[in-house]
């Protein structure tokens, strides 16, 4: 069976961070596509379907939560993960985004590769050659940090 695997979207204005995330995603058996801006990300979503999105909280053109709102309008079922060195998990802005299900999860920078792999496993079902089936898995209030990701 050769089912098409939807890619994971990586949006960060730092090319090095995109490179790191894309390498972790490849290890999980998924293709990825990167965007260095919110504008580029929105253009990619017009012609592609994604199974998961990692968004930097602070982009050069729009902040990550605003991009999440825009993505949510076009794909309400896309699990969106904010990756940030600016916000903390207990920041009221992040807690509000999790509670409202604007975002599915939060990962703080710096992160451990296993944190990203855990998010990929949690939010991608029946896709990726290395991803075990865990149901659809879109649950609000999820966050991962070094202390919580055991």
Characterise this structure.
The chain is α/β, with parallel strands linked by helices and 150 residues long. The chain has a single domain, classed as Rossmann fold. The chain is built from five helices and five strands. Strands 2-1-3-4-5 form a five-stranded parallel β-sheet, sandwiched between helices. Helix 1 crosses helix 5. The protein is globular and about 40 Å long. The protein starts with 7 loop residues before the first strand and ends in a 27-residue tail after the last helix. The C terminus is likely disordered.
Q: Which oligomeric form is depicted?
A: single chain
Fraction of residues in H or I helices = 25-40%
User: What would you call the structural class?
Assistant: alpha/beta
Our Rg estimate from Cα atoms comes to 14 Å
Q: Report strand %.
A: 5-15%
Which CATH architecture is right? 3-Layer(aba) Sandwich
So what's the CATH class? Alpha Beta
User: How many structural domains in the coordinates?
Assistant: 1
Overall number of strands: 5
Q: Mind summarizing the main beta sheet?
A: 5 strands, parallel
H/E element order: EHEHEHEHEH
Q: What is the CATH T-level topology?
A: Rossmann fold
Unreliable segments of 5+ consecutive residues: 128-150
Overall average residue pLDDT: 84
Query: What global shape is seen?
Result: globular
CATH superfamily: Response regulator
Count of individual helical segments: 5
- What is the strand arrangement across the widest sheet? 2-1-3-4-5
Terminus-to-terminus distance = 33 Å
């Amino acid at each position: 069976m050769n089912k098409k695997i939807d890619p994971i979207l990586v949006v960060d204005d730092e090319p090095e961070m995109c490179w790191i995330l894309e390498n972790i995603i490849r290890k999980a058996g998924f293709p990825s596509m990167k965007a260095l801006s919110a504008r580029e990300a929105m253009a990619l979503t017009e012609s592609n379907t994604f199974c998961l999105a990692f968004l930097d909280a602070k982009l050069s053109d729009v902040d990550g939560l605003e991009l999440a709102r825009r993505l949510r309008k076009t794909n309400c079922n896309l699990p969106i993960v904010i990756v940030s060195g600016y916000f903390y998990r207990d920041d009221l802005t992040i807690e509000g985004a999790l509670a409202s299900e604007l975002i599915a999860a939060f990962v703080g920078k710096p992160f451990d590769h296993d944190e990203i792999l855990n998010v990929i496993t949690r939010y991608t079902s029946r896709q990726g050659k290395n991803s075990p089936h865990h149901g659809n898995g879109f649950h609000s209030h999820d966050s991962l940090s070094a202390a919580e990701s055991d």
